[in-house]
From TrEMBL:
SMART domains: Dabb (SM00886)
Lineage: Bacteria, Pseudomonadati, Bacteroidota, Cytophagia, Cytophagales
Domain Stress-response A/B barrel: 35-130
InterPro entries, per database record: Dabb, Dimeric_a/b-barrel, TAT_signal
Pfam families per record: Dabb
Designated name of the protein: Dabb family protein
Length: 137
């Protein structure tokens, strides 16, 4: 009886270790789709060039988060159609390999420091997250 309990314990410990070492293997569907994170910042001081420059400075630092594959900092384009929204100051769009990489980004110290050091600049943030198509091989 004791040998059976020991064997069961070792099997369970091995499975727990495997799951903690390879969390991506436990959730294969979450690793397959490109993840796009698009953020629109609305500054407290609208049209304030210094605040815009400060936010862009922070976003450039934020782009150093290792899980980001590509990052883009933008401002509203000079286009004019009824469906175009141009009331934001700065947009931030970044691409991740998958949702797990984006979740890691959310708790990365660089991201947390960005929020702490620059959130006083904005009154509102709007986020659009989307999944890309499954990879075609």
């Amino acid at each position: 009886m004791e040998e059976n309990s020991r064997r069961k314990f070792l099997q369970q410990a091995g499975m727990a270790t495997l799951a903690s070492v390879t969390p991506l293997a436990a959730e294969p569907e979450r690793t397959k789709e490109l993840f796009i994170h698009h953020v629109f910042f609305y500054l407290k001081n609208k049209n304030n060039a210094q605040d815009e420059a400060k936010l862009v400075e922070g976003l450039k630092k934020l782009s150093k988060v290792p899980t980001i594959q590509f990052a883009h900092i933008g401002t509203p384009a000079a286009t004019s159609r009824d469906v175009i929204v141009k009331d934001y100051a700065i947009s931030w769009m970044c691409f991740f390999k998958n949702i797990i990489e984006e979740e890691i980004y959310q708790t990365d110290p660089i991201h947390l420091e960005f929020i702490e050091n620059y959130s006083h600049l904005w009154e509102r943030v709007v986020v659009y997250d989307s999944l890309g198509p499954k990879k075609i091989s």
